[in-house]
Amino acid sequence: MSFLDYAPAPESTAVLNLRKSYGLFIGGEFVDGSGSAFPTVSPSTEEIITTVAEANEADVDRAVAAARKAYDKTWSRMSGSERGKYLFRIARILQERARELAVAETLDNGKPIRETRDVDIPLVAAWFFYYAGWADKLEYAGAGPNPRALGVAAQIIPWNFPLLMLAWKIAPALAAGNTVVLKPAETTPLTALLFAEICQQAELPPGVVNIVTGAGPTGAALVAHPDINKVAFTGSTPVGRKIAQTLAGSSTKVTLELGGKGANIIFDDAAIDQAIEGVVSGIFFNQGHVCCAGSRLLVQENIHDDVVSRLQRRLSTLRLGDPLDKNTDIGAVNSKAQLERITEIANSGDDEGAHRWSAACEIPAKGFWFPPTVFTDVHTSHRIAREEIFGPVLSVMTFRTPDEAVAKANNTPYGLSAGIWTEKASRMLSIADKLRAGVIWANTFNKFDPASPFGGFKESGYGREGGRHGLFPYLESSDWTKGGR
Amino acid sequence: MARLAIPKTYKLYIGGKFPRSESGYTFEVTTPKGDFLANAAQASRKDARDAVSAARSAQSGFAGLTAYNRGQILYRIAEVLEGRVDQFVEEIRASEGVSAQAAKKQVEQSIDTWVWYAGFADKYAQIAGNGNPVAGPYFNLSTPEPTGVVVALSPAGKTGESLLGLSAVVAPILASGNTAVVLSHPTQPLSAISFAEVLATSDVPGGVVNILTGNPEPLMPWLAAHADVNALDLAGGSEGDWVSWQQDAAETLKRVLPPSRGIPARSLERIVAFTELKTVWHTKALG
Predict the structure, then answer these.
(1) How far apart are alpha carbons A405 and A300 in whole angstroms?
(2) How far is B95 from chain A (nearest CA, A)?
(3) For residue B163, which of B187, B194, B201 has the smallest C-alpha distance?
(4) Residues of chain B under the 50 pLDDT cut
(5) pLDDT at res. A2
(6) pLDDT at residue A485 tops 70
């Protein structure tokens, strides 16, 4: 046993009380789905956790009808302060059931319990607390005079932060006075279904929150439903394009939070050890399944070798394995399909002449795993420098001058995030001005807060989540320009 | 003997210059009764491409000016316009068939629109952005920035109101530091081209506003799909095939403002619609 090996310390799953199968959550009740039920699998063991109903077009229609009824009869007539009290209630229950939710999320998603316990679930509760307080203060949000809800919001979320993405979507929508139909990702429906139970526990009026499970066709039926007023989507850029096309010409408001190829820029005056930690959290947090990941590392040329060797040394200390183990740093890749995609793009890096280095770690026999990987000698034309990999793969490039760093960082159709590491504040602020990205982290990375707006420039989508700006996608004002965003 | 008048050749306005359409095509501009007024250039796809490239080249420089300076530039447009009221009144009377009084009112409203947006250039960011009280030792600030290059379809009022329509869409696009490719009112382009002369003799850098005249239909699918265009203002698009343009724009996830009913009112929202919110986090520490 080396000093890096710890005895196993798995979090107990006894806290979970899962059902053998889950229906759709419509009108405050779990009901059977009309499609064919499908299993949700733990990516670290490939064991089936539970079985989930599939919503077809008719089910989606029922869910939208339930949301419409709840909007017309209950939610739109309720005062903002009462609405807010429901959200506060939900926030408290989320905190009380935090451990259970963390275990469920780790089981279903494959991410380390350390992350679900310390990041995902605390932020979920914080998101509901933050927006709960807005519910009776909407006229102060700056969305124009007499802000009012849009109606029924259709929300589609990805598998990388299942419950956190649910919170990003549902909390502001409900605070603004909308009702929702939410579709979680087909590989991570579990915590959304536990959230449905929490809605029941909080005695949220039936139909205010509806959860329909299923894959792409369920989502497409939801987006195309004629009685929705809003679509909020987080996921891939190709699907985002399709949604924008589907809704062209309609009055349905859209927010899209799509892909990214974030640049993390290290200047030679940076505090290197802190920067290394930031780079690690920037791309290896959540197995790199992060749309705002710092997947391109831009290092000033004179410190390239030093940074790469320190990075490799640090990555060699990361522990990959059982996500439920409290000492695990790198969990499982969420699905076989995603693992295949990561493998394919990483192989293109080899083919195109980049140099691959992977941390030496034992890959468990079962489940889907990819070791932390760093490519050097990467050219801006390589696929690994251009395409979103959505996995623990970092592409290292160099620059000489600040202008070159900015040009390289902006050389992408995406514009979601970027990082700057320098001890010189004037340079940091000037670079931050020039970077075309919605979120800039300076001497830190991958920080999230309900008070802080998040969202992209260019092909990373439009609209913001978080802060007062996160309310705007769910409100209209008598003065607001109709349609568009 | 009476002096022979010199009629003006109406051309395009691209990158601060007045080129003819590279296609060589023109179209007849007439009074509402059908009497000939002028030949105007029918912009081609290549002209549109040149306009986008001029707008892109000018964008970072224009966005990099101080907001105070940009406000002054917008105000200067109003000043120069004020000095040429008579010329615009004449053109508008002829092409829109309205009374001198109505034409004058339109020009004055246009001038006031520029003044209104000029005053917002160094204020809108204070209203649209804010600091964020995050739960941790971080400085965190959200500020709006221009989205980039905006293609705008000039909207029309009841009698055309071509100058006011153009001002009402272009001023808010410029206020934050975007650059614009503007498609003028399709049948009443004269005041748009005379307005280009105002731009050329004020302090607006070349390429910041580019004006194309003629039928927008053949240009729009191409502009909507153009990867170097960030946003579409379809204010004047209600008569056109705007839904398919919005679909074309989805390929590059452009920001799209749908057609307006008539000429849009002055609003902060029109400025904000063509901005992107950027949030900067920075660690706080004593050491």
Answers:
(1) 8
(2) 30
(3) B194
(4) none
(5) 65
(6) no
Sheet of strand A29-31: strand arrangement = A29-31, A24-26, A209-211, A179-183, A152-156, A230-234, A253-257, A461-462
Q: Are strands A417-421 and A263-266 parallel, antiparallel or unpaired?
A: parallel
Is the Cβ–Cβ distance between A188 and A159 less than 8 Å? Answer: yes
- The answer to ipTM > 0.90 is yes
The closest of B138, B154, B143, B140 to B187, measured between CA atoms, is: B154
Q: List the A439-442 sheet strands across, edge first.
A: A355-358, A373-376, A393-399, A296-300, A263-266, A417-421, A439-442, B275-283, B138-146, B130-131
d(CA A358, CA B91): 71
User: Tell me, what's the pLDDT at B8?
Assistant: 85
User: Could you confirm whether A292 is annotated as catalytic?
Assistant: no
What's the rounded Cα separation, in Å, for the pair A361 and A368?
14
List of residues 6+ apart from B183 with CB closer than 8 A = B43, B151, B152, B153, B154, B212, B213, B216, B219, B220, B236
CB interface of A with B, residues 376-415, below 8 Å: 413, 415
pLDDT, tens digit, 9 for 90 and up, residues A286-329: 999 999 999 999 999 999 999 999 999 999 999 999 999 999 99
C-beta atoms of A484 and B281 within 8 A = no
Question: In the prediction, which pLDDT does B159 show?
Answer: 87
Q: How far apart are CA B46 and CA B23, in angstroms?
A: 8
Token pair listed for B267:
């609003």
Phi then psi for residue A268, to 5 deg, are -70, -10
**Cross-chain residue pair B134–A447, CB shorter than 8 Å:** yes
Residue B140 with chain A: CB contacts under 8 Å: 449, 451-452
pLDDT at A1: 53
pLDDT in tens, A212-267: 999 999 999 999 999 999 999 999 999 999 999 999 999 999 999 999 999 999 99
Preferred mutation among A469, A472, A477, A482 to probe B, highest tally of B CBs within 10 A: A469
The C-alpha atoms of residue A207 and residue A39 are separated, in whole angstroms, by: 25
Q: Which residues of A126-161 are buried (b: 16+ CB within 10 A; e: fewer)?
A: bbbbbbbebbbebeebbbbeebebbbbbbbbbbbbb
CB atoms < 10 A from the CB of A390, how many? Answer: 25
* Cβ of residue A468 closer than 8 Å to a chain B Cβ: yes
Contact A444/B255, CB-based, under 8 Å? no
Question: Is pLDDT at A334 greater than 90 in this prediction?
Answer: yes
Return all residues near B62 (Cβ < 8 A) that are at least 6 apart. Answer: B70, B174, B177, B178, B179, B205, B208
Do residues B190 and B37 make contact, with C-beta atoms less than 8 angstroms apart? Answer: yes
Which residues of chain B neighbour A449 with C-beta distances below 8 Å? 132, 134-136, 140
Q: Is A462 on the interface with B (CB under 8 A)?
A: yes
pLDDT tens digits, one per residue of A66-123? 999 999 999 999 999 999 999 999 999 999 999 999 999 999 999 999 999 999 999 9
Distance from CA of A31 to the nearest CA of B (A): 36
The model's confidence at residue A478, banded by pLDDT at 50, 70 and 90, is: low
H or E element: which one contains A417? strand A417-421
pTM for the whole structure: 0.96
Q: Where are the beta strands (DSSP E) in chain B?
A: 26-30, 36-41, 130-131, 138-146, 149-153, 179-183, 209-212, 231-233, 255-257, 275-283
Chain center to CA of B60: 17
Higher pLDDT, residue A196 or A6: A196
For residue A171, give Cα distances in angstroms to A133, A147, A150, A290, A375: 10, 17, 15, 21, 39
Enumerate the residues of chain A whose CB falls inside 8 A of the CB of residue B246: 248-249
